[in-house]
Amino acid sequence: MEPLRIAIIGGGILGVTLAYKLSQRGLRVTLYERGDNLGGLAGYMLYDGVRMDRFYHTILSSDMSMQTLIEESGVKDRLHFTPTKQGFYDNGQLYPFNTPVDFLLFPPLNLFQRFRLGLQVIYAQFESDWRKMDTIPVEDWLIKVSGRGVYRKVWQPLLRAKFDTTAQNVPATYIWSRLRRMMGTRQGVTSKEMMCYLENGYYTLIEALAHKAEAQGAEFHLQAPIEEIVIEGGRAVGVRVGGQAQPFDLVISTLASPILAQLVPNAPADFRALLAKQEYLGVLCPLLILKRSLIPYYVLNITDESIPFTAVVETTNLIDPKHVKGYHLVYLPKYLAPDNEMATWPDDRVREEWMGHFRRMFPNFDESDIVAFIVQRARYVEPIRPMGTLHEIPPIKTPVENLYMGNTVLIYPDLGNGEAMTRLAARMAEQVLEAVGSCQALSQASVIAEP
Ligand SMILES: Cc1cc2nc3c(=O)[nH]c(=O)nc-3n(C[C@H](O)[C@H](O)[C@H](O)COP(=O)(O)OP(=O)(O)OC[C@H]3O[C@@H](n4cnc5c(N)ncnc54)[C@H](O)[C@@H]3O)c2cc1C
Q: What is the pLDDT of residue 187?
C-alpha cells in the first residue's frame, strides 16, 4: 500500500518535530518552510562564523519532552546544565533575586510585602484548576494575594514586560502558568535554579531532528512559502507553492492563525474569521555582542517603566562563552502589542533609543566593548487570549477535512516554549495517525526499517 502523502507547513520546532514523529511512523512527509533555514523563532543567526540563537532560548531542567527529543536525535552530548541567577533592576540599583536570603533582604519591598510575594509563588504551586484561573483577571488575582504595593513594584512591570499594553485584559492563567513553569527548574525552595542550553542554540536540536526525519524518508523544502492550501469540496487536497499545485492526502499547518487564515480562501467563512481575529504580541529584540560580561545574571528584570526594553538577558551566563568564540551575548527584548508603533522603527532608531537607556542603567559601561548591535524582530510570537475566550481556541482537526493545525494558540494555558510545542507535536501526531489508521502507518514503519 502506498503511504499517505502529508504536507507540513512551517519549519519551526513544531513542524520539524512533527516531521520527525510522522516519518518515524512510516508516513511520507514533505515539509515546506518559507525562510532560508529551519527553526522559525527558535532559529539561528550567524555572526563571525558562529551560530547563535536569534532570540535567547533556554531549556528548563524540567522540560522532559525536549530532553527526550535531544536524546533521541543524538545530540545529548551537546546539552549542558548550568545553575543560573536572576536579578532585579530597581531605582538605579541591581539586586540579586535567587536565594531565600536574597528574597528576605530584597530592598524594594518591606518585610510584609516580601512575605506576601512569597505567598503568591507558593499559592500558584497549589492551585491546579487552570479553568478557574481563566475567569480571574490577572491584576485581581495578584493584588488579592500579593497586595497593591507588591503588585506595583514587581508584578506590574513584569506584566508590562510580557504583555505590553494588553495586560489589563488577560486572565490570571498566564502568571500562574509561568510561576509553575519557573518553579519546575528548582528542586525545592532552597535549591539553585538549573537551566540547560544546547551548544549553538536550539537549532542544534532542530537540525538533528530534520536529519533523522530525512533518514526516515521525509523531504524538506526551504525558501518554499506556501501560497494556498488547496481545498476542494470541503477537503484539503494539496498545497500551492511556487505557483504549482502539489497534491497531498493530508495537510498540517503549524503557522500562526492569521497567516493560516490567508492561505485558506475556500475554508468555511466562520473558521477563517476565527483564525483571522486571533491577536498576537510581536517582539523587538536587539542582541548586543560584547567583549566582556555585563551582569552576573541570566536575566535582569526591570521595574523602571521608562526603560523601553523589559529585561536584560545575558545568555552567556548560561552558555559557556567558549561555544560562541568568547563573545558575551546580551539580549534586550521588548514584547509589542499589535498596535505598538515601535514595530515600525528602523534599526538605527531602535539602537539610539535602547542605548540611551542602557547608558543610564550601566553608567560605567565602556562602549568600546560593543562588537555588534543586531536587531531581531518577529510579528507573531505570543497569542493574546483575553478572558472568557476559551471557546475560540481552534481544534487540531479543523472543520476542513484532512486539514490539521497547531500553533501557540493551542497550547493554552501554557506559554509559547519548546517544551509545550513539542508536546503539542506529539498530540497532533497522535491525531493524524489515528486519522490515517495507525495500523497502516505501523506496517509501513516496519517495511522502512527492514534493511
Ligand atoms: C524572544 C523570545 C524568547 C524565547 N525564549 C524561549 C525560551 O527560552 N525557551 C523556549 O522553550 N522557548 C522560547 N521562546 C518560544 C519559542 O521560540 C516558540 O514557542 C517556538 O519556537 C514556536 O515554534 P513554532 O514552530 O510553533 O513556530 P515558529 O517558530 O513561528 O515557526 C513557524 C514557521 O512557519 C514558517 N512560515 C510562515 N509562513 C509560511 C508559509 N506561508 N509557508 C511556509 N512556511 C511558513 C515561518 O518562517 C516559521 O519558520 C522564545 C521566543 C521568543 C520570541
A: 54
Measured in angstroms, how far is the CA atom of residue 391 from the centroid of ligand 1?
24
Buried b (16+ CB within 10 A) or exposed e, 342-366: bbebeeeebbeebbebbeebeeeee
Please report the atom of ligand 1 found closest to the CA of residue 407.
26
CA of 149 to the centre of ligand 1 (A): 36
Tens of pLDDT, residue by residue over 223-233, are 999 999 999 99
10 within ligand 1 shell (Cβ under 6 A): yes
Task: Using the atom order of ligand 1, give the atom closest to the CA of residue 259.
Answer: 38
Please tell me the distance between residue 14's alpha carbon and the centre of ligand 1 in angstroms.
8
- Whether the pLDDT of residue 448 is over 70: the answer is no
Q: How does the average pLDDT of the chain come out, rounded?
A: 91
Radius of gyration, CA atoms only, the chain: 23
Length of the chain: 451
